């Protein structure tokens, strides 16, 4: 049966957006310069202001919009189609998602736990995340394995009675040393002799478990994500109960796949917000900068850059809305092709817009303290590691 796409956002979503905008204008934007400086320049993620805003947002019910299903009291669930509206707005200020508990990597981890955790595991791992009591990471990528192919992941998860013993090294794990991070969702090998796609499992590893070593942080092109730097992690014979395994042994990829749709969709939704911000910055810059007697805004090439960025952003938004609608209609698994098209299309559009903004801003376009250079770095990261990042979100 032909499905007519109707990705109009519900009146409820528009009400939620209006409340989020009001909250951000009153509380988030006034803090933006300071929090961004703390994250970007001081690598400080312990802001008490952010914790205060999280508590206020939660008390107002402005919480957990990124999840489509919630129990009473856990927040305000939105469909993917509706969340696209809010996430685009939050994408303008990269750290703002965490104020409403809509931050990565926690949200994709919560979706995977909602899909695969037992009741006991929900109480141990999911409920603290839903309540915003702590943060988590997804630990897949390894320095010595080409990790865009998850089959190459080699961290060993060896069974020893009622425990697993974990040995291996991970890197570029976003938020691994965040002051609020309490546990890692780790992908590793439980049975190297099993058939392909059935060798890996996901286990939850408490950050303070004996043998967990947090190594040096890795920034990307000099930038750090708002939820904490990406770090190297070493697991030296770390022992965890077998009950920490999510799903059955060998189902690691299925559990990781459950993180896929929210990771892809939400990154793309926020990227559209970033593109809108970049266009506004380009317009401001073009009007205020003058060369050879004219403002940059009067230059044909500059007008073409801004116009082309508008085209890229509108196309990216339509791809996001179509894919969010498709996932709401048929589920993430059946919409896999749409999600694949989305990841490539939006990543490329975001990078083109950031490139043009960097050109228009001249030297300022690459300056560490500027939003344009940061967007350029993230749009590049989106494109470079887009393949496996799908599993890492
Ligand atoms: C800012 C940032 C945050 C990250 N956060 C996390 C995190 O929280 N958790 C985590 O586990 N990982 C994280 N990563 C790591 C990221 O997921 C990896 O970089 C990714 O898994 C790619 O693996 P690799 O770097 O080993 O690249 P490789 O596997 O060596 O691949 C290198 C390149 O080869 C190309 N390539 C690979 N396969 C194919 C193919 N089939 N067809 C065409 N081209 C191909 C791709 O362009 C790829 O970029 C993060 C990375 C960055 C930059």
Backbone structural class: alpha+beta
Kindly estimate the percentage of residues that lie in beta strands according to DSSP: 15-25%
Structural domain count: 3
Q: What is the CATH level 1 assignment of the largest domain?
A: Mainly Alpha
Question: Would you count the extended β strands for me?
Answer: 10
CATH architecture of the largest domain: Up-down Bundle
How do the helices and strands follow one another from N- to C-terminus? Answer: HHHHHEEEEEEEEHHEEHHHH
Radius of gyration: 21 Å
Give the % helix.
Answer: 40-55%
Terminal residue distance: 33 Å
Strand adjacency order, main sheet: 1-4-5-8
According to CATH, the homologous superfamily of the largest domain is Butyryl-CoA Dehydrogenase, subunit A, domain 3
Can you tell me the overall shape?
globular
As residue ranges, the low-confidence spans are 386-393
Description:
This protein is α+β, with helices and mostly antiparallel strands. The chain has three domains: 11-103, Acyl-CoA dehydrogenase/oxidase, N-terminal domain (Butyryl-Coa Dehydrogenase, subunit A, domain 1, Orthogonal Bundle), CATH 1.10.540.10; 135-250, Butyryl-CoA Dehydrogenase, subunit A, domain 2 (Beta Barrel); 253-392, Butyryl-CoA Dehydrogenase, subunit A, domain 3 (Up-down Bundle), CATH 1.20.140. It has eleven helices and ten strands. A hairpin with a 2-residue loop joins β2 (156-160) and β3 (163-174). α1 (11-40) packs parallel to α3 and α8 packs antiparallel against α9 (336-360). The radius of gyration is 21 Å and the shape is globular. Mean pLDDT is 93; it is low at 386-393. The structure holds flavin-adenine dinucleotide. Flavin-adenine dinucleotide is lined by residues 105, 137-141, 146-148, 172-174, 220, 225, 230, 381, 384-385, 387-389, 392.
């Amino acid at each position: 049966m032909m499905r007519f796409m109707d990705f109009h956002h519900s009146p409820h979503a528009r009400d939620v957006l209006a409340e989020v905008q009001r909250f951000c204008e009153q509380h988030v934007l006034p803090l933006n310069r300071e929090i961004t400086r703390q994250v970007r320049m001081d690598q400080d993620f312990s802001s008490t202001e952010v914790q205060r805003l999280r508590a206020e947002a939660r008390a107002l019910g402005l919480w957990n919009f990124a999840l489509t299903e919630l129990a009473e009291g856990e927040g305000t669930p939105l469909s993917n189609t509706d969340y696209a509206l809010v996430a685009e707005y939050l994408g303008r200020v990269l750290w703002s998602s965490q104020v409403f508990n809509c931050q990565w990597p926690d949200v994709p981890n919560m979706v995977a736990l909602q899909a695969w955790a037992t009741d006991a595991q929900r109480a141990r791992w999911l409920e603290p995340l839903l309540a915003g009591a702590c943060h988590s990471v997804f630990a897949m990528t390894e320095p010595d394995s080409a990790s865009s192919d998850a089959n190459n992941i080699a961290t060993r998860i060896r069974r020893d009675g009622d425990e697993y013993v974990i040995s291996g090294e991970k890197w570029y794990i976003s938020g691994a040393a965040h002051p609020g991070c309490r546990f890692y969702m780790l992908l590793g090998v439980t049975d190297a002799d099993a058939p392909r796609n059935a060798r890996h499992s996901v286990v939850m590893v408490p950050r303070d478990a004996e043998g967990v070593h947090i190594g040096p942080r890795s920034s990307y092109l000099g930038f750090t994500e708002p939820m904490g730097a990406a770090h190297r992690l070493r697991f030296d014979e770390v022992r965890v109960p077998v009950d920490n395994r999510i799903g059955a042994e060998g189902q690691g990829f299925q559990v990781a796949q459950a993180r896929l749709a929210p990771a892809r969709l939400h990154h793309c939704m926020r990227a559209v917000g970033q593109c809108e911000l970049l266009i506004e910055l380009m317009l401001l810059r073009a009007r205020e900068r003058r060369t050879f007697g004219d403002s940059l805004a009067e230059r044909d090439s500059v007008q073409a850059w801004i116009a082309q960025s508008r085209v890229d952003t509108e196309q990216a938004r339509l791809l996001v809305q179509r894919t969010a609608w498709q996932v709401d209609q048929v589920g993430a698994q059946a919409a896999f092709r749409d999600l694949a098209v989305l990841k490539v299309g939006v990543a490329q559009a975001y990078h083109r817009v950031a490139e043009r903004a960097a050109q228009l801003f001249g030297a300022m376009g690459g300056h560490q303290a500027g939003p344009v250079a940061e967007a350029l770095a993230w749009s590049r990261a989106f494109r470079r590691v887009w393949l496996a990042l799908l599993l890492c979100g």
